[in-house]
Amino acid sequence: MTTATLITADQFDRMSFDAPVELIRGEIVEMTNPGGRHGGVCVRAARVLDNWVDQHPEFQVISNDSGILLERDPDTVRGPDLAVVQLSSFPGMELPIGHLKIAPSVAIEVLSPSDRWREVLQKVYLFLSAGVAEVWVLDPEVEQLHFFSDSGSKIYDADKLFASVVLTDFECTVRSLFHR
Question: Which stretches make up the Putative restriction endonuclease domain (predicted)?
Answer without folding.
Answer: 11-151
